[in-house]
Design goal:
Elements (H helix, E strand, L loop, with lengths): L1 E3 L2 E4 L3 H9 L9 H4 L7 E2 L6 H10 L4 E5 L5 E6 H8 L2 H6 L2 H4 L6 E3 L4 H11 L3 E7 L7 E8 H9 L19 E2 L5 H11 L3 E5 L5 E6 H7 L2 H36 L7 H39 L3 E6 L4 E4 L1 H7 L3 H4 L11 H15 L7 H10 L1 E9 L5 E12 L5 E10 L1 H29 L3 H16 L3 E7 L7 E9 L11 E2 L3 H4 L1 H5 L4 E3 L9 H9 L4 E9 L2 E10 L8 H81 L8 H32 L7 E3 L1 H19 L2 E5 L7 E3 L1 H17 L6 E10 L2 E4 L5 H4 L5 E8 L21 H6 L6 H11 L3 E7 L3 E9 L8 H17 L6 E5 L3 H13 L3 E5 L2 H11 L3 E5 L7 H10 L8 E5 L6 H8 L3 E4 L4 H13 L1
Parallel strand pairs: 3-4, 6-7, 9-10, 24-26, 31-32, 31-33, 33-34, 34-35
Antiparallel strand pairs: 1-2, 4-5, 7-8, 10-11, 12-13, 12-16, 14-15, 15-16, 17-18, 17-22, 18-19, 20-21, 21-22, 23-25, 26-27, 26-28, 28-30, 29-30
Helix pairs in contact: 1-7, 1-8, 4-10, 11-12, 17-18, 17-22, 18-22, 22-23, 22-30, 23-28, 24-25, 25-28, 31-32
Length: 1029
C-alpha cells in the first residue's frame, strides 16, 4: 500500500514487480509513484456489513487485496482471498464441489531451462500469477509432467536479492516438489492441503501424472461465492412462501371438492380423508425441509460475520447501514445499535479524503458522483479491492485500513446496496516504518565498516563516522575523545567532531576531569556505556557535570572505545538544545559503530606494531646473516686446518708406524727383548695417535654435515660378533666375563656397517676399560616397539614411547659407574668426567661424542643410564623393519637425503597465496609472512585468487571474505569444486564479526576462520597447524 500524508494513494503488488522485471527496468531507479496502481479499489469500514460485498469486489475487479478505510479515509485493514477463505470454511459446500468444476485448464507452462526474465515476461504479458515448470513424459511426448512452479513472489524475492533475471534459469528458483490433486477430488481436500502446506496453488494431474489444470485460492473463493449463497437464501425463502400459499389453496380446493361430493361419495369418504392426510404430511415435510435449509444458510452467514476480525458493513441503496458485524465493532469502537440506520461514509471516513477520491472519480467518468451511496456504488461497480484508506474510530483516532467494496444485486441484477470489507493495517504500517529505520541503520553501519576496511587513516575514519552518526541521529554534536596515555583517564582531547551551527566546538580543547579516572573509567574499561537523558537528573558527580555544561550538553550517550582490553577513548553523542530520551535502537546502533571504530583503532595499532617488528626482524636478520658468514668462514678455516693437520700429522706418523713395524718383524735385523718391548711401545703409541687423529676428523666431518652414509643390509649377528672380537683379548687379560644375546630370526638392518661397528667397539672398549677385574660386560640386542619386545635388553621408557619399530643394541657393565649429574656432560667432545680417570685410563673424550653423532646420523638415539659403583648401561636405538629386510635402494635414498638436508640446513619453503584487496593489509601481511620465511603470492580479488590457485598450487591460502568483483566465499566455493585445487587448505579472514560468520565460512569450505584485526601469532599458528595436517 502506498500512503501519502497517511492517505492511501496507490498500491504496488507482486504482479507490478513482475511486470517491471519483465520490462528489464531497474527497480532501484524507479519511484513507487511511477509504478503504483491508482486509484485503488477500497471498501469503507462502515460499509463492510456483509461478507459477500467483499467477495464480489474481489471477483468483479479481479483483484487479490481489498483495503478497508474508515470514515477519515485512513487505512484500517485489508481483505484477501486467504482471509476470506479462512473465516468462511463452509465445509459442507466444499465437500460437495469437485476440483474439475472450478479448476483452470488453460495453464501457462515453461521448461526448467527457461530464463527467469522470459518467465517474468510471460507472467506480465498474460497477467498471471504463476508459471508451471514442466518436462515431457518419457513414455509419451504429448504429456507434460509438472516438476515445479514459479510465482510472482519468487520473482519479487529474486529482485530483492539483486540477482540477474536474464542469467538465472527457472530450475534454480522454482518451488519443488509440486503438490497436486485429482479432478475427482472435492474442494475440501484442496482447502486442507493448502492449509497444511501453506501454499496458494495446486496442480491438477491425471492418471499418469500429466498436467490437466491448476486450482488456486481464487477458484475456491469463486466456488463459495457469497452472492450466490445470499441469492440462494432468497430463492429458498420465496420457495417456502410459495409452498405455504400452494398448501392453503390446495386445502381450500380440496375442502370445496369434498363438500360437493360429500353426498355422492359417502362410501369413499374414509379413503379420501386418508389421501388428504398423506398430502398434508408430505407438504409439511417439504416446508420443514426448506425451512431447515434456509435456517442453516442464515446460521452460516451469521457465523461468518461474527467470526472474522474484518469490519464487514453493508448499506442499502440510500446508503443506510444495514449490517455491522462484531469485527467492525472492535475496529471502530461503535456498537451495532449505534450505527445501524446511520449513513455512511460520513461516520467512519475522513470527509476530505472521500471528497478528493470522489472528485477524482468524477473527473474520470466525466460526471459528478455523490459523496454518499453514489460513491459506494461507483467503488462497488469499479471493484475496489485492497485500497488504502483512513478510518476514524469513535474516539476520534485515525488509523490506516485496506478497503474493498462491491455492490449487491437482486435476482434481476438490480443494485440493492453495497458491501465493504475493511482490514486494520496499523501494525503493518508500524512494521514498515521500523524496517525503514533498520535499513538506514544497516546502511550507515556498512558504510562505516567499508571505510574502515579501505583505510588505516584514523582521522578519515573518525571524521566520516562522526558526520554519518550526526546526520542519522539528528543530534547536536558527535565527537571521538582520546585519553592521554599517562593521565590516568583524567585528561584528553577530542580528535574528531561533527557539530551543528550554534554550538561550540570541542576540538583542540584540553579537557581535564579530575573525577573521571576515579569515578567512571573502571566501568568504561569493562565495556559499559553511559546513557543520560537529562544531565541535571542523572546523579552525575559535580565535577563531571561541570565539564558537560562547559560544552552546553543537556543529554548524552557515551560508548567506550577499547583497544584490546585497554580503554583508548570515548564515542560521545551530545544533545545540546534540549534533553532527549535515547531509544533502544539508537543505543544499539551506536554500540555497533563503536565496535567497528575499536577494530579500526586496534588495526591501526597493530599495523604500526607490525611495521616496527618487521624493521626489527630485518635488523636481526642482517645481524644473523653477518654472524652466519663469520661462522661459515670459521668453519671453512677449521676444515682447512684439520685437513692440513691431518696431512702434516699422518705423513711423519706413517714413517714412524712403518719403521716400527719393520723393526718389530726384525726385517732390518734381530733385536733384543728389551728392544722389541721398546719398539712395541712406539708402535702402540703411534696407533693410538692415529686413532686420535681419525676420531677428531670423523667428529669434525659429522658435525659439519659432510659425511654421506653408504648403507647396505647388514647381518646383526655378524655385526655383533665382529665387534666383540676387538675386546675379547683385553677382557680376558682383566678376567672379565663377556655375555651377549641376539634374538633368532632377526632381519638384516640397513646401516653403514663400519660406522655402527665403530659405535659398538667404542662402547665395549669403555665398558672393559672401566670395569674392574672379575666384572661382567654384556652386549644385548632386542627388537620391538611400545610394550612388545623380543630380546633380553631392558628397554628405557624413552624408547618405549617411540611408536615406530626399532632395534636396540645395549652395552652394560658392572664397572665404576657415573654420577647422575655427570650424565648430561657425557656426550660432549673433549670432555672426561674426572681428570683422575684420565690419568688412570687413557682417552681423549671424543669416543662418546662420536657415538652420539653416528647414531643420530642413522636416525636413531643413544641413552646412558648409570649409578656410582653399580655399573653403566648404554642403549642405542636404530630404525628397524619388522616384516622383512629393507630395500637398500630406498633406504639409501632416505639416508642420503637426510645428509644433504643436514649439510645445507634448508627445507622446502611453503608458498602462501594471500587474497586481499586492501593495499595496507597486503603490505603488512606480506612483510610478516616473508619475515617468517614463507613465500607469498598476491591476489587482489576473488577471481584472481581462483586463477592463481590453479597457476601456483600454493601450500595454503589466506582469503579475505570482502573483496571486489568476486567475494571470498564465492572464491572458496569455486576452489572446492575444482578437483585440481580442492585440497588446498584455506584460512578465511573477515572484519564484519556478525553472528553466523564462522559457520558460513566453514560451510563454504574454509579450514580455519580468523577475525580482523589479525593477531599475527594466531595467523602463524593457524598456518602451521593446517600445513602439518
Amino acid at each position: 500500500m502506498v500512503l501519502e500524508d497517511e492517505k492511501l494513494i496507490g498500491v504496488v503488488t507482486e504482479r507490478d514487480v513482475v511486470r517491471l522485471s519483465a520490462q528489464q527496468q531497474d527497480l532501484n531507479r524507479l519511484l513507487v509513484r511511477e509504478v503504483m496502481a491508482h486509484p485503488v479499489v477500497t471498501l469503507r469500514e462502515s460499509d463492510f456489513t456483509d461478507l459477500f460485498l467483499a467477495v464480489n469486489l474481489l471477483q468483479q475487479y479481479h483483484i487479490r487485496h481489498l483495503p478497508l478505510l474508515n470514515e477519515q479515509d485512513l487505512l484500517v485493514g485489508m481483505v484477501t482471498h486467504e482471509s476470506l477463505r479462512q473465516i468462511t470454511r463452509p465445509i459442507d459446500l466444499l465437500r460437495l464441489r469437485l476440483v474439475s468444476e472450478v479448476m483452470t485448464s488453460d495453464v501457462v507452462c515453461a521448461v526448467s531451462d527457461r530464463s527467469m526474465l522470459a518467465i517474468a515476461q510471460m507472467m506480465a504479458g498474460q497477467k498471471i500469477s504463476s508459471v508451471m515448470i514442466v518436462e515431457t513424459c518419457s513414455t509419451d511426448n504429448s504429456l507434460q509432467i509438472p516438476v515445479g512452479i514459479v510465482t510472482e513472489r519468487d520473482v519479487v524475492q529474486f529482485q530483492a536479492l539483486g540477482l540477474n533475471l536474464e542469467t538465472c534459469i527457472a530450475h534454480t528458483v522454482m518451488s519443488t516438489p509440486i503438490f497436486s490433486v485429482k479432478p475427482e477430488d472435492n474442494l475440501l481436500t484442496v482447502q486442507q492441503i493448502m492449509e497444511q502446506r501453506l501454499i496458494r496453488r495446486l496442480a491438477v494431474t491425471g492418471e499418469f501424472g500429466e498436467l490437466l489444470g491448476i486450482v488456486t485460492q481464487t477458484n475456491l473463493l469463486q466456488a463459495l461465492n457469497p452472492t450466490e449463497i445470499y441469492n440462494l437464501a432468497k430463492v429458498l425463502e420465496a420457495k417456502v412462501e410459495q409452498l405455504e400459499s400452494e398448501k392453503v389453496i390446495l386445502l381450500e380446493n380440496r375442502n370445496i371438492e369434498l363438500e360437493r361430493q360429500v353426498h355422492q361419495r359417502t362410501a369413499s369418504l374414509s379413503e379420501a380423508e386418508k389421501t388428504l392426510q398423506e398430502l398434508n404430511q408430505s407438504l409439511e415435510a417439504k416446508v420443514a425441509e426448506r425451512t431447515q435449509e434456509l435456517w442453516q444458510i442464515n446460521k452460516l452467514q451469521r457465523a461468518i460475520l461474527a467470526g472474522t476480525d474484518y469490519a464487514i458493513i453493508s448499506v442499502d441503496v440510500n446508503g443506510i447501514i444495514q449490517t455491522f458485524n462484531s469485527g467492525a465493532e472492535k475496529m471502530l469502537g461503535y456498537s451495532m445499535g449505534e450505527v445501524i440506520g446511520q449513513v455512511t461514509p460520513e461516520i467512519f471516513h475522513d470527509a476530505q479524503e472521500v471528497s478528493d477520491k470522489v472528485a477524482k472519480a468524477s473527473k474520470i467518468l466525466g460526471k459528478d458522483i455523490g459523496v454518499g451511496f453514489e460513491a459506494l456504488k461507483y467503488m462497488g461497480i469499479k471493484g475496489l479491492l485492497d485500497e488504502e484508506w483512513i478510518h476514524i474510530r469513535k474516539d476520534g483516532s485515525c488509523f490506516p485500513v485496506l478497503l474493498s467494496v462491491t455492490v449487491l444485486r437482486d435476482d434481476n441484477g438490480q443494485i440493492i446496496g453495497a458491501l465493504s470489507v475493511t482490514k486494520d493495517i496499523s501494525d503493518r504500517k508500524q512494521a514498515e516504518q521500523i524496517i525503514l529505520q533498520q535499513a538506514n541503520r544497516e546502511t550507515l553501519l556498512r558504510g562505516i565498516t567499508q571505510r574502515i576496511r579501505q583505510s588505516l587513516d584514523l582521522s578519515i575514519i573518525f571524521d566520516t563516522a562522526c558526520q554519518e552518526i550526526q546526520q542519522l541521529l539528528q543530534c547536536d554534536r558527535v565527537g571521538i575523545f582520546k585519553f592521554y596515555p599517562e593521565s590516568n583517564f583524567d585528561d584528553g582531547e577530542f580528535v574528531a567532531e561533527s557539530v551543528v551551527d550554534g554550538f561550540s566546538s570541542a576540538m583542540e580543547v584540553h579537557i581535564h576531569d579530575h573525577c573521571f579516572g576515579e569515578g567512571y573509567a573502571a566501568a568504561y574499561a569493562q565495556g559499559r556505556m553511559q546513557v543520560v537523558n537529562d544531565i541535571d537528573n542523572a546523579g552525575l558527580m559535580d565535577c563531571h557535570r561541570d565539564v558537560l555544561v562547559q560544552f552546553q550538553v543537556r543529554a548524552n550517550l557515551v560508548i567506550p572505545l577499547l583497544c584490546g582490553n585497554n580503554l583508548w577513548g570515548l564515542l560521545c553523542i551530545h544533545q545540546c538544545a534540549h534533553t532527549r530520551q535515547w531509544q533502544e535502537h539508537e543505543i544499539n546502533l551506536v554500540q555497533q559503530i563503536a565496535n567497528q571504530l575499536a577494530i579500526a583503532i586496534q588495526q591501526a595499532s597493530l599495523y604500526a606494531q607490525s611495521q616496527q617488528e618487521i624493521a626489527e626482524r630485518k635488523q636481526a636478520q642482517q645481524q644473523l646473516t653477518e654472524t652466519n658468514q663469520q661462522l661459515a668462514r670459521a668453519t671453512r678455516l677449521k676444515d682447512e686446518f684439520l685437513a692440513n693437520m691431518s696431512h702434516e700429522l699422518r705423513t711423519p706418523l706413517n714413517a714412524i708406524l712403518g719403521l716400527s713395524n719393520a723393526l718389530k718383524e726384525q726385517i732390518l735385523g734381530s733385536l733384543t727383548e728389551s728392544q722389541l718391548n721398546a719398539i712395541g711401545i712406539v708402535e702402540s703409541s703411534g696407533e693410538h695417535l692415529l686413532e686420535l687423529i681419525n676420531d677428531i676428523l670423523d667428529l669434525s666431518k659429522i658435525s659439519s654435515g659432510i659425511v654421506e652414509l653408504k648403507t647396505e643390509p647388514t647381518s646383526v649377528q655378524n655385526l655383533c660378533d665382529s665387534s666383540l672380537v676387538f675386546i675379547k683379548q683385553q677382557a680376558f687379560q682383566k678376567g672379565l666375563e663377556i655375555h651377549s644375546h641376539i634374538p633368532q630370526n632377526i632381519n638384516k638392518i640397513d646401516i653403514e656397517e663400519r660406522r655402527i661397528k665403530q659405535v659398538l667397539i667404542n662402547l665395549l672398549n669403555n665398558a672393559v676399560k672401566f670395569t674392574p677385574s672379575g666384572g661382567k660386560v654384556s652386549l644385548l640386542v632386542a627388537i620391538g616397539s611400545g610394550d612388545t619386545w623380543q630380546g633380553e635388553a631392558t628397554i628405557p621408557q624413552q624408547i618405549r614411547a617411540m611408536n615406530s619399530p626399532v632395534i636396540v643394541f645395549q652395552v652394560t657393565d658392572t664397572g665404576i659407574g657415573i654420577a647422575t649429574e655427570d650424565l648430561q656432560r657425557l656426550f660432549q667432545p673433549f670432555v672426561q668426567l674426572d681428570s683422575a680417570l684420565n690419568r688412570q685410563y687413557e682417552g681423549t673424550g671424543l669416543g662418546l661424542a662420536l657415538v652420539k653423532k653416528i647414531v643420530e646420523l642413522h636416525g636413531g638415539q643413544v641413552i646412558a643410564e648409570s649409578q656410582i659403583g653399580m655399573g653403566s648401561c648404554f642403549t642405542v636405538a636404530l630404525p628397524y623393519e619388522m616384516f622383512g629386510s629393507s630395500d637398500p635402494s630406498t633406504d639409501m635414498t632416505d639416508v642420503t637425503r637426510r645428509s644433504i638436508a643436514g649439510n645445507s640446513g634448508k627445507a622446502i619453503v611453503p608458498l602462501i597465496l594471500l587474497a586481499e584487496d586492501n593495499e595496507a593489509n597486503i603490505a603488512t601481511l606480506t612483510a610478516y609472512l616473508t619475515a617468517l620465511n614463507y613465500r607469498v603470492v598476491i591476489a587482489r580479488n576473488g577471481e584472481e585468487a581462483v586463477a592463481m590457485a590453479k597457476a601456483h598450487s600454493p601450500d595454503a591460502i589466506v582469503m579475505d571474505i570482502q573483496m571486489p568483483r568476486m567475494d571470498g566465499l564465492t572464491a572458496i566455493r569455486l576452489i572446492r569444486t575444482d578437483p585440481q585445487i580442492a585440497a588446498i587448505p584455506i584460512i578465511a579472514l573477515t572484519a564484519l564479526v556478525m553472528e553466523g560468520d564462522r559457520e558460513r565460512c566453514l560451510e563454504a569450505g574454509a579450514n580455519e576462520y580468523l577475525t580482523k584485526p589479525i593477531v599475527f601469532q594466531q595467523l602463524n599458528d593457524a598456518i602451521q597447524q593446517i600445513l602439518t595436517q
